[in-house]
Amino acid sequence: MKILIVGSGGREHALAWSLSRSLKVKQVYVASGNAGTQWQGGNADTFFAVGAPCQNIAVASHDIPSLINFAQDHAIDLTIVGPEVPLALGIVNDFQEANLKIFGPNEFCAQLESSKAFCKDFMTEQGIPTAPYIVVDNEAVAYRYILEHDPHLVVKANGLAAGKGVIMCDTRSASRTAVHQMLAEKAFGEAGERVILEDRLVGREISVLAFCDGKTAKPMLVARDHKRALDGDKGLNTGGMGAIAPAPDIDQSLIDDVMRRVVQPALQGMANLENPYVGVLYAGIMLTENDIQVLEFNCRLGDPETQVILPLLKTDLADILWACVQGTLDQITIEWHDLACATVVLASQGYPSDYPKGLPISGLDHTPENAIVFHAGTSQKEGIVTNGGRVLSVTAVGKTLDDALNTAYACVDGIHFEGMHYRRDIGRTTQHD
Ligand code: AMP
Ligand code: GLY
Questions:
Q1: Which residues of 388-411 are buried (b: 16+ CB within 10 A; e: fewer)?
Q2: What does the DSSP assignment read for 190-207?
Q3: Residue 252: how many other CB atoms lie within 10 Å
Q4: In a mutational test of the pocket of ligand 1, which residue from 154, 209, 282 has the highest number of ligand atoms less than 8 Å from its CB?
Q5: pTM exceeds 0.85, yes or no
Q6: pLDDT at 433
């Protein structure tokens, strides 16, 4: 197979690495990729060694016509979409109209992520557990709701905001300020034209991702992301500062519960709306005192969750993704390594707010066999330089979570760029403990 991966972050590097190791795959392309997603090819003879060659192509992930041209000209057998923006733009509909195979949900299904209002209404209709909420586009209505409710609210921009459009409020005045920033000052542009006000829940979080073929869903190992920028779950929400898998405090009965009460009803709901959900469904779940509550759905693999889930996957990823697009996922058994995996994100100074780019990165040459540095915001100039907020995702496997974390942090110690910041408590604190 020839594979095209759309995207340029750590998730796409992990996808490219995993697919390159498949015996079915002879070439991987990444549009547009980063400094880590190019290699000549190897024989995948150690845990993190690459297999088939991988090459970047200079096409942006939202330039759907050019991606279609590339896929046709290069006889791509399967395209895999990493980020949410092309999915929300309908890349899957357009590829299918051009008779090209693509892994991901169509534009209708992708609304689960591109509109939090759509998602909350859908969950309510399907009886999926989620916090009470209202959707508003008017400040006066929002202020009345705030006045009448418990002061612990979460204010969310309706549209896509790269994980940053969610503001946790402890006081009514903080909620009013957040609403004003979104609705009046347009801090998140169009994404904040509608706002969701939601009860603030307390509990530990998990990311439950499932492969879906429209009818059948199969869960991946449960991961835990660390979304806040600073140690101890302080600071702003980010796209994710590090992750572990499998989450050590989760048992099979909880996974079964999430599949039965969250993932299956979502799949059934979309099938009933005549838009079978194909791709990865990602449920961000909070374990409250006595139940599970869905905080969000994403319509794709998580970043950095992918960087800790794929290294533990034993089954050939190409077989799984192909089965999803063919509607034969029920015939596949998904197996996992009995190991733990951890990733630590190295971010640019200032992230998730403004940050510099173009700073040289050192220390990427010596990675032990049980670790890999997945690149995210990097580019190849004379050397490798920073090119994004989340720059690298330093990943390691081990027999235990502690082993994996120790190896990942030892690797981090050897890497440097000016202003580099990262969390020192990945896997050691759980969100909102
Ligand atoms: P979302 O993009 O909706 O998942 O929100 C991003 C992050 O904000 C989540 O991972 C949680 O840490 C936090 N969050 C979102 N909704 C809530 C809520 N209702 N209660 C508490 N925390 C929340
Ligand atoms: N790590 C959270 C996300 O991918 O949305």
A1: bbbbbbbbbbbeebebbbebbbeb
A2: GGGSSEEEEEPP-SEEEE
A3: 8
A4: 154
A5: yes
A6: 45
